[in-house]
Each structure stands twice: as structure tokens, then as C-alpha cells.
Amino acid sequence: MPDTSDQAAAWTDDVATPALVRRIAALLDRDGRALAATGLLPRGWHVALCHDGVPQGRLPPDGYAGPGIALPDLGLPRVMLGGRRATFTGDIPLGATVERCAGIVGVTEKTGRSGRFALVTIRHAYTVQGREAVVEEADYVLREAASPEALPPPSPPPAPRKAEVARIVVPDETLLFRFSAVTGNPHRIHYDAPYARDREGYPALVVNGGLTALLVLDLVRHAAGREPAVFACRMRRPLFCGRPMRLCASPDPEGWRAVAEDETGAVALEAEFR
Known about the structure:
By secondary structure, this protein is α+β, with helices and mostly antiparallel strands. The chain is built from 5 helices and 12 strands. The chain has a single domain (10-273), classed as Thiol Ester Dehydrase, Chain A (Roll), CATH 3.10.129. Helices cover 18% and strands 35% of the residues. It is globular, with a radius of gyration of 18 Å.
């Protein structure tokens, strides 16, 4: 396991603005002006904050700008979000300056059916005037270069999942572009179809894992009628542009559980809302 003890934390800041709220609301088909009028950034939308941007000349071939701190060089060129766990200890007022501290808290290397891979866990702490508002751990999966075995094999369609609330979304190029723009994400697998197909072996553009999580969070937030104290999700398989995804959620004794399914009914994302 690589030694990350000397990896310095990375700091950056940003301002939570009504304009940011309106932009995220627009891609979710929500009323941005009404949301901005609350004076607070909806919980979970912090993912669009504190992206300083990597200079164009320093971007790697895949365009991925990183999760706010340099990932270790393990000879594993492909990167995808594997999951995140966010705890909300307060709200972010609009107009406030938000500081983010990012640091690596774990690196685990493994070998699976598709070859060697690594799981890198990044801790992000978002503070406003020295007060923590969000603490999030995000897992990034680093994988070997593309191979025919890179994608999970297709599964037979399961029985339709029962859910309290459900929604069908067909992500298109415009939705992927808008999410990448609002989060400052130049990762080419989300907008460069020839690169995604020919260089990384995907059948189409890959839906941003963060976008799927945001759509699921939006569904559950409105069903629950409240903001989350904790929102955690795990990505199980990629979703692809132009293919319908089914978002469904049901309450449980501790809150809500939700999933995003691909066009075959296979689970692509699992989430908990507390």
C-alpha cells in the first residue's frame, strides 16, 4: 500500500451564490429562483463548489482534473467515482465563502476479475467561517487501461422493483454537459464519445456518477419533504448516455433507501438518505 502520510491537505475556497443554485436547479427541472430565495444552498449541492480548475496544459490525456488533491500514480490510468458518504452538520448560506480541505485518507490496491485496481478515499471538509457544514468521504476507483473485460457482463432483467416513488430519466449529451460545466469536470468520458468508445472501451458516453447521485438525492428530498442529515451512495456499474435509467426510492425505519437502475433493471447505484 502506498504511503500517504506525507500527502499535504489541499485547501481551496469558493462563494455559494444564487446563480449557482439557479444553474443546478435548471438541470434538475426545479424552480431555481424559489430555491435561491431560501437563502441556503440545498444539501448535496456542495459538489459544485471549490473547483479551482487545473490549467489546460496540465490536464492528463483523459481530461480528468482530479478530486481536489492529486491522486497517487499507481499506473492505473482510468478513474471513476465509486461512492460517497456525506454528513451535513450545518447549512451553507448563499453569499457565504466556503473553504474546502481535501486529503487522502486511504489507498487500497486489489486484483479482481477485470485486473488490478485501487480504491482511493478522499476526505473533503467544507467549512463556513470556521464552522463545518459538510464532511464527505469519496471513493475513487483507479483501473487499468481498457480491455474487453472492463465492463460488467449483462445480466438478465430482474422483476420490476417496488418503490414508493420512481422516475425514469434518459440522460442525453446536454444533461451530461450541463452537469460537467456546473461542477468544472473536464473528464472526457462524459462528453467525448469517440474517446469514451475507442480509448476506454465504453459503448457510449458515461453518465457522471455525481449526476446520478444528484438525481437520486433530488427524488428522495422531494419525497421525504426534508433535507438529509446523511446521504451516502455506492456506484455498482456505469450508466450510459441515451439509455433510460430508473430512479426509485422507498422509506425505511431509518429514513429512505434508493437505487438507480440501468435499462436492464440492474442496480447501478445504491443510496441511503437519513
